[in-house]
Amino acid sequence: MDCTTVKPGAKCVFMTKKGCSFNGGTCHHTVDHCDGCNRSTKFPSGWYCTACPDPALKWKNGQCNLATHVRDTAKSEVAKVNPLKASKRSAR
Question: How many structural domains does the chain have?
Answer without folding.
Answer: 1
